[in-house]
Specification:
With 683 residues, the chain is of the alpha+beta class. The chain folds into four domains: 2-220, Heat Shock Protein 90; 228-358, Ribosomal Protein S5, domain 2 (2-Layer Sandwich); 392-482, Rossmann fold (3-Layer(aba) Sandwich), CATH 3.40.50; 497-682, no CATH class. The chain contains 23 helices and 22 strands. Strand 12 (289-293) and strand 13 form a beta hairpin. Helix 17 (495-506) crosses helix 21 (619-648), helix 20 packs antiparallel against helix 21 (619-648) and helix 22 crosses helix 23 (669-682). The longest helix has 40 residues, at 571-610. It binds adenosine-5'-diphosphate.
């Protein structure tokens, strides 16, 4: 028997492995099974080249558990190792500068293991002792046993092994007993080894016999050795892609479509990406793209490798050219990785364009499910926009689809305002904005439906991209003013009358938390609604954007501002005006007279003080002005009180306000109840 020290320059690497790699303990299984697979593939290569002339036989890699002995064994029938090879490949590992490196990447087991070619030693993350029993494929080779208990000392001795190949026996540490559970190992094999290229068996297939699960003779093979992405697209049918998708994501709906990736120059990459049908955000969080390296599962966090907006896709990417043993930040600056990311983005864009060109109907049918991905891409990636804007669609409230260019042609004649801006009208809720949409359509306008999660941001972007274009939600103004064709027509009434009318309504508006109204009068024609609520585009959009960005809480806290528009051409508003006039004229005229006097006096005083410097104005003069101002304020509040008292008893005013609120979903609770009661009385 031979004894020796493993060539570790650091004092003792094993406690370090264990401590630093704690969170990723489970990858030991991936490392050992892939070593077994590699050894088997090497043998197959030798056989094909004639360097190995024996029988290949059953090459299945076997993983087995012995709970009583507390061991996991990974067995293969690959090339095996001679004593010299063990010495070379296992004993002499060079950990130069290990401490620094470990410190830097302590949270990233992939980086550490990759960096040191440390695959085999990851066994010590879970084992207190590891045995290798191996016999080389070379003729007449002597089987050997290597043992190590986690200290730098090992033993190496001759052993018995009837056939070529290797058994790795892990004596599981007491604090890692979970890895002796069948279900745990089964889950890990399924995660990491599911698509390895050599059959991997975990125990035997089971069947029900006499009310019990018993082993059959048949190996329980856990992997698919020839996964779909490794095959040629020409050999595959749609059904194959769909089946593969179901296998990967059993709970998901059928995908919209897929893209088979296949490059071998200037880097190697294969894979299949699926556009999923998203039912909920959970689909996006749980079902992710899986990254493989030669069919070995690596990770499902592909940020940096796949462009941001495509991380929402599902499927598999397999590339030996992605440096997995480096940190994430390094990954993003790696030129190969950049090329891969650009390639994937281009492929996706080309595929979308092809579907759009060849089967526009299908493209339109899938658009509603697709748009989230495309919008995300438009917003986050400049070069994607440059291509995708040719096939990105608008959908109008009638369910018709247009490309950006088609839509521009459609609305150019009718929806250009007096300053030459093209006005895109949109709704984001067909039900809630029904009356506004109807009004706009009746005027011959087209209205887009923009009800996606990203539409607010998209609208902002398109206003920058398109020349002379503005997006306006249909309820942001009265229909006549949505697209300003001529200079504004003011309400056709005297200023004094308008002020009283405004006060009548303002005084009766309900208090709604975080909502403010501004009442204004317009001439909208006798057939238009007597009253309606609009919300200015600019402030509303600022608030919506604020809600998307947590940092902008300031805007989010501001009240919602609405306009209550009174149509002075409508007979109901006209009658409110005449009724008010008659009812309060007697009470109001002395106040008005008083106000006129006070206003005149104020003007005189101000005129007198206008040309004086601040220190030339006497105390008496200052008091004089303050006195007039206070009196004006008093008279005004008297006037308001008179109007408010009258308006409080005017059922038409209340009914009109409530109808406007109701139409916008703002009439609730007690106010709604009062409205119902009043309506019944009126009937
Ligand atoms: P890597 O696989 O990255 O080279 P490992 O530490 O996992 O690093 O393995 C070191 C070497 O030990 C391998 O390159 C291989 O030559 C040898 N080896 C490991 N496991 C086996 C096995 N099951 N059969 C034959 N050789 C093996």
């Amino acid at each position: 028997m031979q004894k020796g020290n493993i060539g570790v320059t650091t004092e003792n690497i094993f406690p370090v492995i264990k401590k630093f790699l704690y969170s990723d303990h489970e990858i030991f299984l991936r490392e050992l099974v892939s070593n077994a697979v590699d050894a088997t593939q090497k043998l197959k290569t030798y056989a094909s080249k004639g360097d190995f002339k024996g029988e290949l036989g059953d090459l299945t890699v076997r993983v087995s558990l012995d709970k009583e002995a507390g061991t996991i064994t990974i067995s293969d029938y690959g090339i095996g190792m001679t004593a010299e090879e063990i010495d070379k490949y296992i004993n002499q590992i060079a950990f130069s500068g290990a401490n620094d490196f470990l410190d830097k990447y302590k949270d990233d087991a992939n980086a550490i293991i990759g960096h040191f070619g440390l695959g085999f030693y990851s066994a010590f993350m879970v084992a207190k002792k590891v045995d290798i029993i191996t016999r080389s494929y070379q003729e007449g080779a002597q089987a050997v046993k290597w043992s190590c208990d986690g200290s730098p000392e090992f033993t190496l001795e001759d052993a018995e092994r009837a056939e070529r190949g290797t058994d790795i026996v892990l004596h599981i540490d007491d604090d890692c007993k979970e890895f002796l559970e069948e279900s745990r190992i089964s889950t890990l094999l399924n995660k990491y080894c599911r698509f390895l290229p050599i059959a991997v068996a975990f125990g035997k297939k089971k069947e029900w016999k006499d009310g019990k699960q018993v082993d059959t003779e048949e190996d329980n093979v856990i992997n698919d050795t020839a996964p779909l992405w490794m095959k040629k697209p020409q050999e595959l049918k749609d059904e194959d892609y769909k089946k593969f998708y179901r296998d990967l994501y059993p709970m998901s709906d059928e995908p919209l479509f897929w893209i088979h990736l296949n490059v071998d120059y200037p880097f190697n990459l294969t894979g299949v990406l699926y556009f999923p049908k998203i039912k909920s955000n959970i689909d996006l969080q749980k079902n992710k793209i899986q990254l493989y390296c030669n069919q070995v599962y690596v990770t499902d966090s592909v940020e940096g490798i796949v462009p941001d907006f495509l991380t929402l896709l599902h499927g598999v990417i397999d590339s030996p050219d992605i440096p997995l043993n480096v940190s994430r930040s390094y990954l993003q600056s790696d030129s190969n990785v950049k090329k891969i990311s650009t390639y994937i983005s281009k492929k996706v864009s080309d595929r979308l364009q092809a579907i759009f060109k060849n089967d526009r109907k299908e493209f339109e049918q899938k658009w509603d499910d697709l748009k989230l991905f495309i919008h995300y891409g438009l917003l986050t990636q400049e070069d994607f926009y440059d291509k995708a804007n040719k096939y990105t669609l608008f959908k109008d409230t009638d369910g018709k689809y247009y490309t950006y260019e088609e839509y521009q042609t459609l609305i150019k004649d009718n929806q250009t305002d007096k300053d030459g801006n093209l006005i895109y009208l949109y709704a984001n809720n067909k039900e809630e904005q029904y009356s506004y949409i109807e009004a706009a359509l009746a005027k011959g306008y087209n209205v887009l439906l923009m009800d996606g999660q990203l539409d607010t941001a998209l609208v902002g972007m398109l206003e920058h991209k398109f020349e002379k274009a503005r997006f306006t939600r249909v309820d942001s103004d009265v229909v006549d003013r949505l697209i300003a064709k001529e200079d504004d027509k003011k309400a056709d009434i005297e200023a004094g009358k308008e002020e009283i009318l405004s006060s009548v309504f303002t005084s009766q508006l309900p208090q709604i938390n975080k909502v403010e109204f501004h009442v204004e009068a317009h001439s909208l024609g006798e057939n238009a609604s007597p009253i309606l609520i609009t919300q200015g585009e600019y402030m509303r959009r600022m608030k919506e954007m604020a809600n998307l960005q947590p940092g902008m809480a300031f805007y989010g806290e501001m009240p919602d501002m609405f306009n209550l528009v009174l149509n002075v051409d409508h007979k109901l508003i006209k009658s409110v005006m005449t009724d008010t006039d008659q009812a309060i004229e007697a009470e109001l005229s002395p106040i008005e007279a008083e106000l006129r006097g006070l206003n005149a006096r104020q003007a005189v005083i101000e005129q007198a003080q206008k040309d004086k410097k601040a220190d030339e104005i006497t105390e008496a003069e200052k008091n004089d002005l303050a006195d007039v101002e206070k009196k004006i304020a008093d008279e005004k509040s008297k006037k308001e009180a008179v109007i408010s008292k009258y308006a409080a008893g005017n059922k038409v005013v209340h009914q009109l306000i409530d109808l406007a609120l109701l139409q916008n979903g703002m009439l609730k609770g007690e106010a709604l109840n009062n409205f119902v009661k009043r309506s019944i009385e009126l009937i």
